């Protein structure tokens, strides 16, 4: 059975960039995991319904009005299960490769769990299923890096650099969604997952007042908010966030059942109310950033 249009490959468009449609602010927002265009050379051995559980489906649509508030919005078109742009380029498990990688590798904790640069498994109801019935060649991983990972990072870095050059700083929001069974996966029964989890790598990637502002704006809509638990942020905010240089980076995770059906990936009744409230959050963030201008050193 052929894939529906929204799952069809888009090899010529690995990343979409939406420029500000209002007066530009030093605001850059990116959705690295909401892509649904599955590359033709994926070569996975699991069915699409299971594979899609790795998506942050429709996250970029929830936040699609960012450009109307002066922000640049980026969204990956490809799925994170193919290659995860929120991992470093050397975050690879050598055991998943058919031959040796030509340079040193640095697999992290998540990689050893099968969730590195190239995912090895997908989880549903506590059960892990391998994505492949084979080892991957060095050439195909390098191709994914060249055609998908590198263009995404280049586009994001260009947006960050442009804001810093023009305004003297930047506020970056890294947009995600999280499965409802996160704590079950972690083997914990003593915690309840919040509607939103904000991560700044334990206070190191943005000003404390910024993460608190975003949290308060979200809570104003009746949503619960947690900080750095169970998600702190990974590669992208760790690289971009340098608050001492007026470069603030914050990860936002949304609990999926408040806007979608996790099995079908379709929006549920909570989608429209959440999208409407996020527009108010965006306005509040834009007002805050506008109040910080001009920054020291701005041109």
List the helices and strands and how they pair.
Blueprint: E1 15-18, E2 27-31, H1 48-51, H2 59-62, E3 72-76, H3 109-112, E4 121-124, E5 127-130, H4 138-167, E6 170-178, H5 182-185, E7 196-199, H6 208-219, E8 225-227, H7 235-240, E9 247-255, H8 271-291
Please identify the structural class as seen in this structure: alpha/beta
| Alpha carbon gyration radius | 19 Å
CATH topology: Aminopeptidase
DSSP strand count: 9
Order of helices and strands: EEHHEHEEHEHEHEHEH
CATH C-level name = Alpha Beta
Counted by DSSP, the helix tally is 8
**DSSP strand content:** 15-25%
Shape estimate: globular
Average pLDDT rating:
95
Straight-line N-to-C gap: 55 Å
Uncertain stretches: none
Q: How many domains in all?
A: 1
CATH homologous superfamily name?
Zn-dependent exopeptidases
Biggest sheet: strands side by side, in what order? 1-3-2-6-9-7-8
Helical residues, percent: 25-40%
Q: Sheet bearing the most strands, described?
A: 7 strands, mixed
CATH architecture: 3-Layer(aba) Sandwich
Q: Brief overview, please?
A:
The protein is α/β, with parallel strands linked by helices and 299 residues long. 28% of the residues lie in helices and 16% in strands.
């Amino acid at each position: 059975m052929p894939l529906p249009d929204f799952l069809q490959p888009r090899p010529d468009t690995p990343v979409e960039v939406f420029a500000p449609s209002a007066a530009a602010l030093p605001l850059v927002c990116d959705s690295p995991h909401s892509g649904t265009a599955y590359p033709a050379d994926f070569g996975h051995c699991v069915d699409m319904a299971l594979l899609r559980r790795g998506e942050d489906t429709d996250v970029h649509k929830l936040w699609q009005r960012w450009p109307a508030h002066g922000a640049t919005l980026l969204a990956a078109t490809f799925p994170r299960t193919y290659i995860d742009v929120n991992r470093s380029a050397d975050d690879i498990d050598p055991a998943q490769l058919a031959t040796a990688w030509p340079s040193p590798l640095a697999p992290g904790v998540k990689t050893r769990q099968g969730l590195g640069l190239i995912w090895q498994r997908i989880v549903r109801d506590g059960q892990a299923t391998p994505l492949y019935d084979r080892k991957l060649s060095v050439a195909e991983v390098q191709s994914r890096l060249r055609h998908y990972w590198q263009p995404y990072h280049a586009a994001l870095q260009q947006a960050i650099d442009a804001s810093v050059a023009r305004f003297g700083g930047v506020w970056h929001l890294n947009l995600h969604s999280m499965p409802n069974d996160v704590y079950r996966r972690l083997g914990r029964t003593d915690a309840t997952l919040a509607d939103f989890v904000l991560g700044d790598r334990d206070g190191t990637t943005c000003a404390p007042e910024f993460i608190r502002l975003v949290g308060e704006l979200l809570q104003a809509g009746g949503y619960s908010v947690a900080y750095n638990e169970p998600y702190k942020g990974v590669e992208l905010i760790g690289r971009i966030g340098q608050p001492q240089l007026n470069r603030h980076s914050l990860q936002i995770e949304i609990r999926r059942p408040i806007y979608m059906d996790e099995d079908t990936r379709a929006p549920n009744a909570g989608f429209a109310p959440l999208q409407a409230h996020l527009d108010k959050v965006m306005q509040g963030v834009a007002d805050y950033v506008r109040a910080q201008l001009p920054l020291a050193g701005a041109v």
